[in-house]
Design brief:
The complex is a heterodimer of chains A (381) and B (157).
Chain A lengths: L1 H7 L12 E6 L11 E7 L2 E8 L7 H6 L3 H8 L7 H16 L5 H29 L4 H21 L8 E2 L2 E2 L7 H12 L2 H9 L3 H7 L7 H6 L5 H4 L7 H4 L20 H25 L19 E9 L2 E9 L7 E5 L1 H7 L1 H5 L4 H10 L4 H5 L1
Antiparallel strand pairs in A: 1-2, 2-3, 4-5, 6-7, 7-8
Helix pairs in contact in A: 3-4, 4-5, 5-6, 5-13, 5-16, 6-7, 7-13
Chain B lengths: L2 H11 L4 E6 L5 E5 L4 H10 L7 E10 L4 E9 L6 E9 L4 E3 L8 H12 L2 E3 L33
The chains are: A alpha+beta (381), B alpha/beta (157).
């Protein structure tokens, strides 16, 4: 039998064995999927024919839990929606509730919120940079990224005592005022951090191996991006202006100067560039906020029991570290939301994965997945 | 376009397709659409350059057991015009069926799967209508208001 088959192989001719499609399971326990995401991948040799994400391994039904909690209690759960960027989700929920009830936080609280959300964006992008580079083989940036993230977490810990799930931004203001030494420490960190960004770029941006792995890989065209609901830095990599901070300003984003970072290629490298440039913008935003921070109250006076007006609803969006974060709240006159929907950037960004990876090799899945900056608790909620 | 202008323009352009249009107390334009005109309205909202709602920001549902209805809610956003719109469609709770908007905005694919999974609304014409969060053999719809399960305890007031 073997002799027969071997005799059929002609030099330069087609193999008589043929190739079969086969199905490979990546995850749910896989070092490169950043959590419990399972990908069912249909392969022909090493070429990807189809990628099917299977979700739900981290589904806690936070939306159902929120329907059974009062508004202030819900804030605790929002931390767990995106634990790498918990401040953003805190802010999203607090803002939505305030808009629903017609409240407004005092100016000092709003500036503090901006400082912490932008620091959080830095921390999130740093972790992303490390993980993304690690996924495609460059392990050093991970250590650099975590080294600087640590100092941001120290600033958070100094203020609210927590390093991961802060519960700091509350309805009507923030939990506690910053310590007097926060401002100099924060400025010292920014002065230390800003020259580090070119250092990361030296490691990665024009590194030939990095370029080979990211340039032209997983291109999101503007049409596909908009149609599939891609948002945040991933869509800005395709040249679409979609920053909620610019388009629908909240807090005091209309009073600070910053640029919306856009790239036109739409590939993994463009998405990387957008996030690196966003870090520079965030540093500049935090500096401006620190300059304009003035003493004052940090909380508005709230009624003893927070109730939304009957038959009220709000869809409130912010720009979280990963992109557009929308909170849909429906009030029915009771202290609990009738409906709380979290529209998360990772959920809609993961949807496009199948289209981006078709025709590429298995190893490119990791590059594309990493460049979309998805995080599983946000996908599953 | 301000919200009031958007609302009156929609009222004149689509008066045979919508049941009502209103600006809510929270300054959002909310449309209730007639079931038979749902897809046509969505297509017009996306493709007509005056509206340009290219981005389906969110699609979800709400359960009203007392009124025996489930309401689908679409939140639309226009990147170029920077305006927002909420489109609502009521479906029968006993036999929840709705046409899919997947062919208008592809992003609706997963949003609709999620609504199917958690509310049990069947989207006719959907390309891949399977459960997305819960296990495939699960039979209940967790986000419905009358949901009960062994592990789920409603917190007393």
């Amino acid at each position: 039998m073997t002799d027969l088959l071997l005799s059929q192989i002609k030099p330069g001719g087609e193999s008589p064995f043929g190739t079969d499609e086969y199905v490979v399971n990546m995850g749910p326990q896989h070092p490169a999927t950043h959590g419990v995401l399972r990908l069912v991948v249909k392969l022909d040799g090493e070429t990807v024919k189809e990628t099917m994400p299977v979700l739900g391994y981290l589904h806690r039904s936070i939306e159902k839990i929120c329907e059974n909690r009062t508004y202030p209690q819900c804030i605790t759960y929002t931390d767990r929606v995106d634990y790498v960027s918990a401040m953003s989700v805190n802010l999203a929920f607090a803002l939505a509730t305030e808009r629903l009830m017609g409240l407004e936080a005092p100016p000092r609280a709003q500036w503090l919120r901006m400082i912490f959300v932008e620091l959080q964006r830095l921390a999130s992008h740093l972790l992303w940079m490390g993980a993304f580079a690690g996924d495609i083989g460059a392990l050093t940036p991970f250590l650099y990224g975590l080294r600087e993230r640590e100092r941001i977490l120290d600033l958070f810990e100094m203020t609210c005592g927590q390093r991961l799930t802060y519960n700091y931004i509350r309805i009507g203001g923030v939990m506690i005022d910053i310590l007097p030494e926060f401002v100099p420490k924060c400025r010292a960190f920014l002065d230390y951090f800003e020259p580090k960004i070119p250092e990361y770029e030296e490691l990665l941006t024009y590194n030939p191996i990095f370029l080979e792995r990211t340039k032209g890989v997983g291109v999101i065209t503007p049409e596909v991006g908009i149609n599939c609901g891609v948002c945040g830095p991933s869509l800005r990599g395709s040249g679409i202006s979609c920053d909620v901070r610019k388009q629908q300003p909240y807090l005091f984003y209309n009073q600070v100067k910053f640029n919306e970072c856009l790239e036109n290629d739409g590939d993994c490298w463009a998405r990387y560039k957008v996030r690196m440039n966003e870090m520079r913008e965030s540093v500049s935003i935090v500096r401006q906020c620190l300059d304009r921070l003035e003493p004052g109250p940090i909380e508005t006076k709230l009624p003893p029991i927070l109730k939304a007006p009957p038959a009220s609803e709000i869809y409130s969006r912010i720009e979280s570290s990963r992109g557009e974060m929308g909170i849909y709240l429906v009030g029915d006159g009771t202290p609990k939301p009738y409906k709380a929907k979290f529209r998360c950037a990772s959920f809609s960004n993961t949807f496009v994965l199948d289209q981006l990876t078709r025709g590429w090799k298995v190893a490119d899945i990791m590059a594309v997945l990493g460049s979309l900056d998805m995080i599983v608790p946000e996908v599953d909620r | 376009m301000t919200n009031d202008e958007l609302k009156s323009k929609i009222e004149t352009d689509f008066k045979d397709k919508i049941q009502s249009a209103a600006v809510s107390a929270q300054k959002e334009v909310i449309l209730a659409v007639k079931p038979e005109a749902y897809i046509a309205l969505c297509q017009d909202l996306k493709n007509k350059s005056d509206y340009d709602f290219q981005h389906l920001s969110c699609l979800t549902a709400m359960d009203y057991p007392k009124d025996n209805k489930i309401t689908l809610v679409c939140h639309l956003w226009s990147y170029r015009k920077c305006h927002q719109l909420t489109v609502k469609l009521d479906v029968d709770r006993a036999n929840p069926k709705a046409p899919t908007v997947e062919n208008v905005w592809k992003a609706a694919n997963w949003f609709e799967r999620e609504v199917f999974d958690l509310y049990g609304v069947v989207f006719e014409g959907h390309s891949d209508l399977r459960r997305i969060m819960m296990p495939e053999d699960y039979t209940k719809y967790p986000l419905r208001k009358d949901f009960t399960d062994d592990g789920f305890i409603v917190k007393p007031n």
